[in-house]
Specification:
Elements: H1 12-22, H2 37-74, H3 76-81, H4 88-98, E1 107-111, H5 116-127, E2 131-136, H6 144-155, E3 160-163, H7 169-178, E4 183-186, H8 195-198, H9 200-220, E5 226-232, H10 256-275, E6 279-284, E7 287-288, H11 297-307, E8 310-315, E9 323-324, E10 327-328, H12 329-342, E11 359-364, E12 370-371, H13 372-383, E13 388-393, H14 408-414, H15 422-447
The structure holds nicotinamide-adenine-dinucleotide.
EC number: 5.1.3.6
Main location: Golgi
Subcellular location: Golgi apparatus, Golgi stack membrane
């Protein structure tokens, strides 16, 4: 106890008590009246040498603990998210990946680059000669090995994905210090509607807190990039006027996911208004295709059908089939690139607004909703297998009964025009699925032909 007393870990109260004992401020606190004079001097002498000794120990302990915590403090954000970044080699990879390969090419930070849409957009940007740096935290919402496979694919096209979180302000500041990004294509998010029931805070972490951390970095960057980001058709929520148009109500979300995307639209508006950031929000409608997301129905239906397992099909409460405006990935990528190319400049610099900047919102859909039984029958045809269907009434899980995009605005301002119908798109998806998941899937596929 004596040895431990001066060490910093004791509570403040304990420390005060010990210090009082060691350094009596009033003589009355040390009851030594009955002691011999020599004994008293000895006591005083002993007390003062003990005091000095303990102070020395205390200072050494304090210095040692500060030094040992120093690396943790300087990289606390990295440790908290268990990612690693930094160093000369890392900076070189970032710079090389960010360099455009064509005159006046864009320099784009793509968040969520290891994700489904992010990986496709990154590749398309690189193919036309733009510079790209990806950022992704490789979380395990769905199988991270698929994200890593996408990363390897991008790496073979000289695209570097930084392993980090959009909540890491130090990392973002470093990236904007190293690279003068012209655009940010922000696709990182906690996607999926149903998972919010299980893990609501992941939506707040990525779609609200992460968005604000990223916008803070973008706002402070000099030059200030244009900001293009993924909102969602889910913001239409309980709207039942079809097709969904950008001018319709979006204040009745049916899920936490939708609420965070709607909040994102409001948050980006304030950064446009206060800081002069050029903002484009893209409301994607059920994107599907090769390298897609395993949590989406077309993907896990395929897996189950190939494995001979039953699939659950939800039907609306009124007996109507659920329908989605399925949009093929290549059409979405063209929409994203058009949004990047037409985005006006941010007017601010280093956090100071210099004038009004554009604030745009576009639907990117296919304008031709497909109901779930039709989706399944197309999959059955391409897989040459019959699905074991289990139809039940849709539970209250945040899903809306249908989506249908009006894309007039995107056609007029982005030249957006979807060209892939669901049959052609699913055919490409099935081909990719069989080739990606290899022999096991193909084995089942062949035996059931
Ligand atoms: N796919 C669709 O049908 C669809 C529809 C509407 C909107 N969207 C939106 O489009 C964007 C891309 O969707 P997707 O289908 O490619 O999803 P995805 O999950 O495949 O991609 C998102 C990526 O972001 C990463 N990520 C998540 N949180 C992060 C964080 N805090 N820091 C760094 N990285 C993080 C994930 O690891 C993932 O790789 C998302 O914003 C999504 O909400 C998608």
């Amino acid at each position: 106890m004596e040895k431990a007393a001066p060490v910093a870990f004791a509570s403040a109260k304990m420390r005060a008590l010990k210090e009082d004992e060691l350094f009596p401020s009033t003589p009355g606190k040390f009851k030594i009246e009955r002691s011999h004079q020599f004994h008293r001097q000895y006591q005083r002498c002993f007390a003062s040498s003990t005091t000095i000794f303990l102070w020395v120990i205390f200072l050494i302990a304090l210095t040692a603990s500060f030094l040992s915590f120093q690396p943790f403090l300087s990289s606390s954000s990295r440790l908290s998210s268990a990612h690693s970044w930094g160093g000369l080699q890392w900076e070189r990879q970032v710079r090389v990946s960010a360099s455009p390969r064509r005159p006046s090419g864009l320099t784009v930070l793509v968040t969520g680059a290891a994700g489904f849409i992010g990986s496709h957009c990154s590749l398309a940007l690189r193919k036309r000669g733009d510079g790209i740096v990806g950022l992704d935290n490789f979380n395990s919402y769905y199988d991270p090995s698929l994200k890593k496979a996408r990363r390897s694919h991008l790496s073979s096209h000289s695209i570097f994905i930084v392993d980090g979180d959009i909540n890491d302000a130090r990392l973002l500041s470093k990236l904007f210090d190293i690279v003068p990004f012209s655009h940010v294509l922000h696709l990182a998010a906690q996607a999926g509607v149903r998972y919010a029931i299980e893990n609501p805070s992941s939506y707040i972490h990525s779609n609200i807190a992460g968005l604000v951390t990223l916008l803070e970095a973008v706002k402070s960057a000099d030059p200030q990039p244009a900001f293009i980001w993924a909102s969602s058709s889910s913001v239409y929520g309980l709207n039942d006027i079809v097709p969904f148009s950008e001018s319709h109500r979006t204040d009745r979300p049916a899920s936490l996911y939708a609420a965070t995307k709607k909040a994102g639209e409001e948050i980006t508006h304030t950064y446009n208004h206060i800081h002069g950031l050029s903002i484009t929000g893209l409301r994607f409608f059920t994107v599907y295709g090769p390298w897609g997301r395993p949590d989406m129905a077309y993907f896990f239906f395929t897996k189950a059908i190939l494995a001979g397992k039953p699939i659950t099909i939800y039907r609306g409460r009124d007996g109507l089939n659920l329908a989605r405006d399925f949009t093929y990935i290549d059409d979405i990528v063209r929409g994203c690139l058009a949004a990047l190319d037409t985005a006006g400049k941010s007017t601010g610099s280093g956090g100071k607004k210099r004038g009004a900047a554009p604030y745009r919102i576009f639907n990117l859909g296919n304008t031709s909703p497909v109901n779930v039984p039709t989706l399944v029958s197309i999959l059955e045809r391409h897989l040459k297998l019959k699905a074991k269907k289990h139809v039940i009434e849709m539970p209250s899980n945040g899903d809306v009964p249908f989506t249908h995009a009006n894309i007039t605005l995107a056609m007029a301002e982005l030249g957006y025009k979807p060209t892939t119908n669901i049959d052609a798109g699913l055919k490409k998806f099935v081909k990719w699925y069989i080739s990606y998941y290899g022999h096991a899937a193909r084995g089942i596929f062949k035996t059931n032909l």
